[in-house]
Amino acid sequence: MSTTQAATARASVLRRAAYPLLAFVAVVVFGVGGFMLVSDIGVLDATFWVIDPTSVELHFQEHGTEAQERTAKAISVSTRVLLVLTGAWIAESVLSAAFGGSIKEELKKVQVKKEIDETNDHVVVCGYGMFGRTVANGLDEKDVPVVVVESETDQYDRALSDGHLAVNGDARREGVLREAGTETARRVICAVDDSNVNIQTAVVVSQIAPDCRAVVRVGDEMYESLARRAGADEVVIPEVMSGESVTDGL
Questions:
Q1: What is the CATH number of the domain that holds 31?
Q2: pLDDT band at residue 126, thresholds of 50, 70 and 90?
Q3: What is the pLDDT of residue 98?
Q4: Residue 28 belongs to what domain range?
Q5: Which parts of 178-217 are beta strand (E)?
């Protein structure tokens, strides 16, 4: 495991353990504060009582009233029970992060990013709906390297499960397109089911990678001229293409 991967894994574990750790600290504060309030002792002594509950009985053999002893014992029992529960919560969170998929997912993302950084002369497919998926899978069958950009988490996960390199984000954002390796790509296919989004993406592509060919999908012929002014080298209208394919053999 590389240094970066190890750091990412540790960060994942810490995120998962944050709430149970805070709960554990809160229980300790509850016990220390309760003992100080009931028995009029210092912070160090109260902390020691949390660690060693037998000190409570020893103290009240010589000091305090019976009512104070009962209250202190109740605090001691409650604190011990809560410490056990929060301790188990911490253990469950850490183990879940380690073996339940969180670390594995983080390492997968690191590996995918590394592979994208090493990929050149590929095709960036923005959008993994029906159209984008068909394009990406078709390119893959031709052994053309593909990087998918998808903002929806479910579709992003599907792209990964289909064996594609993928970036989870909005293709209209410069940083997301750079992460997908647009600057070293041979072509960007704007395949989202929204003509405006695709045109906006083409504008960004033309700014960060002017030598990269941009193919823009639009839903209507009225968008074609706008897409070309935005930097599209090729405009695709699936509905027109489908209609022409039906009439070709007639």
A1: 1.10.287
A2: very high
A3: 60
A4: 3-103
A5: 187-190, 213-217
Task: Give the separation between CA 182 and CA 53, rounded to whole angstroms.
Answer: 63
Instruction: Indicate if 205 and 130 belong to the same structural domain.
Output: yes
On whether both 157 and 50 belong to a single domain, the answer is no
pLDDT band (50, 70, 90) for residue 16 = low
Q: What is the dihedral sign for C-alpha 144, 145, 150, 155?
A: positive
pLDDT tens digits along 152-180: 999 999 999 999 999 999 999 999 999 99
88 and 158 assigned to the same domain: no
Write the DSSP symbol of residue 173.
S
For the chain, the 3-state helix, strand and coil shares in percent, each to the nearest 5, are 65, 10, 25
Whether residue 64 is found in the same domain as residue 159? no
Say which DSSP state 25 is in.
Answer: H
Nearest Cα neighbor of 181 from 246, 116, 236 is 116
Q: What total number of domains does the chain contain?
A: 2
